Amino acid sequence: xxxxxxLPLAGxxxxxxxxxxxxxxxxxxxADLGAEVIKVEPPEGDPVRGWGSAVDGNxxxxxxxxxxxxxxTLDLKxxxxxxxxxxxxxxADGLVENFRPGYLERIGLGPAVLHAANTRLVIARxxxxxxxxxxRDKPAFGAIGEAMGGLRHLTANPGQVDFPPPRCxxxxxxxxxGMYAALALVSACWGIxxxxxxxxxxxxxxxxxxxxxxxxxxxxxxxxxxxxxxxxGAAIKTAAPTNTYPxxxxxxxxxxxxxxxxxxxxxxxxxxxxxxxxxxxxxxxxRCENVAELDAAIAAxxxxxxxxxxxxxxxxxxxxxxxxxxxxxxAADPHxxxxxxxxxxxxxLLGRVxxxxxxxxxxxIPPEAMVRWTGPKAGAHNAQVFGDTP
Length: 390
Fold this sequence. Notes:
Elements: E1 13-17, H1 22-32, E2 36-41, E3 54-55, E4 58-59, H2 60-65, E5 69-73, H3 79-90, E6 94-97, H4 103-106, H5 111-117, E7 122-127, H6 142-148, H7 151-154, H8 172-192, E8 202-206, H9 207-212, H10 218-225, E9 242-246, E10 252-256, H11 260-269, H12 273-277, H13 284-289, H14 291-302, H15 307-316, E11 321-323, H16 327-332, H17 334-338, E12 342-347, E13 351-356, H18 382-386
């Protein structure tokens, strides 16, 4: 293990009682920022170790999911192991958990017990629906957060009734809840810093609320006017032309040409400067009213070129655009590589493997230095943390 000096959360100790995605994602962010994260797993390991592809039985995803964390194993049904957990929490700054509400209380490790051991402990609790309310005891996974939080309604294509609205392809509600939990935990730790009399806080984050928080102006619009935002497909109603267009090689090109100046550059680049000069396209409001004609003209042009070629033409004209990248495109892109967004790291369990960089960087600390080690085997740090053999 390698420590990186200068990371902002160095010295912060966090205990993770996380499984699957939301809590482990929160603590991965904290660990990337320098916190000491002790991941407590059941003896058989986090269930996510059994997801996806593997090398010699070691889950590839866990290389990232568990990076920069210390892994210990405890059986929380055993009194001796519950005592070990309480001892860990007694010397920690924070705890992140994502069990169903009431589970910790049922096994004798609720906030009252943990705060008796450490009055300054910040406890971040992540669940499907929150720690109270009529739905608190219902089971939930990330897809349910998307559905009830209002996001899945918006991911459909307008008028498409034969297929269900698709999910975005990643566990977005878990990731959002994890980000919010990490932010709230650090905020709470800051709030008690330097005050010897301050007491720890309990943070309540849930999947549904995390997705719902992205609703922008939809709720006040509904309250004032009764408007219900409907699926927009690849476009939006408030800006034009902004859409995703088909190309000659079967790929797609996203183009955002909605400011007046960029719109004129776009239309000149596709050989239609006369359209840019027409009064009915003079402002964004007018373009939104006539967007179908604009989209048809742009699509007629993109269909004549491979996506990369069309992208190059528009980039030369300083029109914001991008091909729709898949993970292979990301891994090969020179900008991703130059900024170390994609980095090669050595994983003792997997060999040489690609990792995504942390989504933040600090002057004086190379992005590669923030990955101190990859996800370890379950219980790899039992001896180090508990002072005994696994």
